[in-house]
Backbone:
């Protein structure tokens, strides 16, 4: 199952980009034997400054039909890493065309994007910068693949 992260905003060179590239490379190596991956990024920008509504239109247009969608949202479900890995495996086993993770802009996700999501995921009650949310997501994807493969990365 292919995975894609669709996010508002461009990632610049720096430590966040380095971490994301590292975790994606690790995930792709570990996940492929499990039927997971590769992970791809799609970065979208609202160059006209239309706010949440314009970002929602861009995101909605970028989500293909038939894909499973998980929206990163501060009001989403809190999960443990093992729970996240089991949910990833469950989605894989349902055989959608791909799994899309959606990360909104500074004002969050538009209602139509949240309505399109099959699930909403939160990384806690605190609000995180969008670039760190990308790092956290890619790390959790790698951790999930490691858990599913029985690897030593995740320790209990």
Residues:
């Amino acid at each position: 199952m292919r995975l894609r992260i669709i996010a508002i905003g461009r990632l610049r060179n720096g430590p966040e980009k380095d971490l994301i590239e590292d975790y994606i490379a690790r995930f792709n190596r570990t996940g492929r034997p499990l039927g997971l991956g590769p992970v791809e990024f799609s970065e979208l920008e609202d160059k006209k400054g239309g706010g949440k509504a314009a970002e929602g239109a861009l995101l909605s247009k970028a989500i293909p039909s038939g894909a499973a969608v998980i929206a990163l949202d501060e009001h989403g479900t809190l999960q443990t890493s093992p729970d996240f890995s089991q949910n990833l495996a469950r989605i894989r086993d349902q055989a959608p065309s791909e799994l899309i993770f959606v990360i909104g802009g500074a004002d969050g996700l538009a209602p139509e994007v949240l309505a399109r999501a099959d699930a909403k995921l939160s990384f806690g009650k605190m609000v995180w910068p969008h670039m760190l949310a990308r790092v956290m997501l890619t790390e959790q994807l790698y951790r999930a693949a490691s858990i599913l493969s029985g690897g030593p990365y995740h320790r209990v």
Summary: The radius of gyration is 15 Å.
